[in-house]
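Can you give me the bound-state structure? Components:
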Amino acid sequence: MADYKLHCFAQSGHSYKAALMLALCGADWEPVFVDFFNGEGRTPEFRAINDMGECPVLVHGDVTLSQSGVMLDYLSKQFGKFGPKTEEEHREILRWVLFENHKLNSFQGIYRFMLNWAPEQARSEDVNRFMKGRSLGAMKVLDAHLATRDWIAADRATIADVACSGYLFYPREEFGWTEDDRFPNIEAWQERVKTLPGWQHPYDLMPGHPLGSNT
Amino acid sequence: MADYKLHCFAQSGHSYKAALMLALCGADWEPVFVDFFNGEGRTPEFRAINDMGECPVLVHGDVTLSQSGVMLDYLSKQFGKFGPKTEEEHREILRWVLFENHKLNSFQGIYRFMLNWAPEQARSEDVNRFMKGRSLGAMKVLDAHLATRDWIAADRATIADVACSGYLFYPREEFGWTEDDRFPNIEAWQERVKTLPGWQHPYDLMPGHPLGSNT
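Here's the bound-state model for the whole set.
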């Protein structure tokens, strides 16, 4: 049995943060597929492991964790990797983990869901436009931040970089972005993230997508 | 000059988390009014102190902080109050700080803004309905969590309670809630929060609202 079990599904950028961290740390882990699009997150069985009803959930021995930011903090301590070295770095990492939760991955995740997988009756042009605007606003903040640095919160890759990766490696067409929606500093940073040993694409790292290798 | 300066405005629930924490810690602090509704968050002067363009910003000596969750963590260490005692408490506190950022205060803040202060051309029934649904969903999660406990993350008040207070003490009518939108466990918890020494209403703690005492 693997040391770590990650309850997740391929399309979940919040799950990808934890899956990527496990991969980058070289952890002994395995994914457990959650059929989220068919309502598994609302079942009593799933609520029993996460009262917030969200993916991912990470199980390590008798420790069960929800919230990807908690997992990144926990794994950085378990493996002694990608964590802060000083209190100042701790604050800067936490700042970006909160930002990506609140603004970057939150809006991107909702927008992408509404665009691709929401039931017909729940779709709305207004909501999509609103979410796209919020999502692009957050991208602009991150792009400006990366204009003068290689990594988000320190002089090396940290869990802030893993956290902000959440939805950024999914195919552009899933976001309905036009050719004008370009973020050169984010794209350059993504190329650096891809060079980290162990990096894999979300569709290869987590189960449930027909195009992925882990299905 | 006060030890701490908090750049904020009365209607900002994200600012209220930091203002409430300063009040509960008995800090020597003063608010600096940010005219957010008139675009001050987008000015180069404000972006120079916070590249994310958000309120609040906390200044303490040569330390300048953005993201309310970072401030709560920082202040809990400065004052030795409302922080975790164990790693398990640390994880549980962080879990709720991330949840309130991502789901609770995020959706409540946007929904309330769109309902009350958004320019006419930006308003949309669809967006309001969507945000209200998301906001009530997050309230249900917190209400269920509080059914069996007095405080959110430990056997006493912690920064998780301060964080979740963000938008909850603003007048109900600002959220367009009906009489059916009741959360008895949250309401009972709010009464406990109010008994914490130093507690004050957001409109009294921060400047910029005509009904507040701090204008």
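A couple of observations. Residues 4-81+198-205 of chain A form a domain with the Glutaredoxin fold (CATH 3.40.30.10). Strands of chain A lie at 4-8, 29-33, 57-60, 63-66.
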